[in-house]
């Protein structure tokens, strides 16, 4: 078997994987010959949970990063559960207790993350409408983009260090990805 170079995307058609994380649901498209580690990297931008903090459960078992999706039976529209590693959560809680500035910044980022999660659901719904061929009013794209830009402004106002700075950076990337998605959906909607 030939080993892939780091950063090279695996070959093969894309499959859609449904991931549950708490009360949230995500759909992630990855090549069918990906590993669980590559799936975790794709989940970072959607969930905001760092790769080393993720635990993916498929068919009742936690899967290792180097396991290939197709070899353990993952197919298109397979379902998985994403859990956050409790040891890393406890470590972050300890860090936040030691530094109240980081704690306040983390809380501020968390508030924005909750709002972005709600907007993310709206973006996903809009995305499914566009891909089904339904005509969507341009106003929908404009309103959602504006709401996401407001979240970016809120994130820019947060003064953060350490863990809070990392969380803020992840959320900024996540919001920017959603804005890019909306732009491409708007173009596709016009066709």
Structural overview:
GO terms for molecular function: adenyl-nucleotide exchange factor activity; protein-folding chaperone binding. Keywords: Chaperone. This is BAG family molecular chaperone regulator 4. The protein is of the alpha+beta class. The chain has 2 domains: 14-84, Phosphatidylinositol 3-kinase Catalytic Subunit, Chain A, domain 1 (Ubiquitin-like (UB roll), Roll); 89-190, Up-down Bundle (Methane Monooxygenase Hydroxylase, Chain G, domain 1), CATH 1.20.58.120. The protein is 55% helix and 16% strand. The chain is built from 5 helices and 5 strands, in the order ββαβββαααα. It has helices at residues 36-47, 86-98, 100-131, 138-157, 162-190; strands at 14-21, 24-31, 54-58, 61-62, 78-84. The protein has a 5-stranded mixed sheet with strand order 2-1-5-3-4. A hairpin with a 2-residue loop joins strand 3 and strand 4. The longest helix is centred in the middle third of the chain and has 32 residues, at 100-131. The protein is flat and about 50 Å long. The protein starts with 13 loop residues before the first strand and ends with a helix.
């Amino acid at each position: 078997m030939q080993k892939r170079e780091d950063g090279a995307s695996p070959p093969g058609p894309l499959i859609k994987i449904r991931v549950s994380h708490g009360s949230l649901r995500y759909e992630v498209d990855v090549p069918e010959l990906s590993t669980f580690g590559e799936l975790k990297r794709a989940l970072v931008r959607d969930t905001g949970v760092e790769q080393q903090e993720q635990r993916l459960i498929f068919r009742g078992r936690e899967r290792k990063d180097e396991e290939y999706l197709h070899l353990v039976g993952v197919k298109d529209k397979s379902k998985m559960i994403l859990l956050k590693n409790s040891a890393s959560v406890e470590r972050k809680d300890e860090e936040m207790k030691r530094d109240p500035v980081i704690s306040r910044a983390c809380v501020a980022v968390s508030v924005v993350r909750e709002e972005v999660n709600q907007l993310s659901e709206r973006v996903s719904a809009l995305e499914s409408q566009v891909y089904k061929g339904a005509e969507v009013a341009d106003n929908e794209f404009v309103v959602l983009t504006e709401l996401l830009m407001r979240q970016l402004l809120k994130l820019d106002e947060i003064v953060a260090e350490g863990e809070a700075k990392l969380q803020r950076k992840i959320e900024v990337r996540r919001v920017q990805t959603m804005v890019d998605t909306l732009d491409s959906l708007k173009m596709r909607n016009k066709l």
